[in-house]
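As described in the Methods, two query proteins were run sequentially through the folding procedure within a single session, without resetting any intermediate state between them. The first query and its resulting structure tokens are shown here.
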Amino acid sequence: MTFVIVAEPAPLKISADSVVRVGKTRVTLDTVVSVFKQGSTAEEIVYRYPSLKLADVYATIAFYLNHQQDVEAYLQQRQQQAQEVRKMNESRFDPQGLRDRLLARKAEVLVSILV
């Protein structure tokens, strides 16, 4: 019997919006790397994100460890994009007093229900 070793590609796909996702799920590379860096094992990651396959999580972690600089650069870019989107949204929708406006709206709804 001959044992054949075949290299399999990482289970990572780049979506239309340039987000790297794991396997055939909506779970992002960002998420898996983040929880891995927080100390979660592959099994714990699958438990938290049951749509993932254990083998895909191990392969994703291996990819991260083998390409750490590239992945970290990608994660940094994603973080910068998130900050830009956050700033844009804050400029369009003033976050000051948001909690007060939501509480006032909730109170109005409760009054209309009670009346």
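Immediately afterward, the second query was submitted; its sequence and tokens are:
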Amino acid sequence: MSNTDLLEKPDVREGDTGNANEVFHYVRKNKIAESAVMGTMVEALCGEVFPVTKTPKPGSPVCPACKEVYEQLRKE
């Protein structure tokens, strides 16, 4: 996986309660549009699987596990 395959801004699974603890996950860039349109599932860098339902706003919280994996990939 190369850095260009990753989305710079993460996407999230929609919570049903508007939970303040909701975090956004990093996913492969080429899967986002397909998931948003077709409702297919995507796999985040942390292993979480979900359909893309939201776009994050600047400053949105990022999944700590996704962030750690992303940082490791950037070093390679």
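The CA atoms of residues 8 and 51 lie 18 Å apart. We note this only descriptively and draw no conclusion about the first query from it.
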